[in-house]
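We include the entry.

. . .
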Amino acid sequence: MFAKPLVRYDRRSPGLGDAFVESARQCVADVIADPSRFASSPGGIRYRRLRRFPYVVLFDVTDSELLMLGVLHTARSMERWRERQADN
């Protein structure tokens, strides 16, 4: 899930990839701790922005589950992401 951004950020500056992964891990931990506190997109998918990096963690909450759906660069279209998921 984080391999491509990790490599890209490490090429830009050694150690920056590790900082990206740590930011993503903290983001996921925040979602697990209290998923209801984060925003919801018009389609009902919730998201949490990473600190310092232009990415969001996408997730959904049901009555019995917390579903981690993916990581999306904020320059990417949420609609395009939905279409790709529907194709799979």
Remarks:
- The chain has a mean pLDDT of 88.
- The radius of gyration is 13 Å.
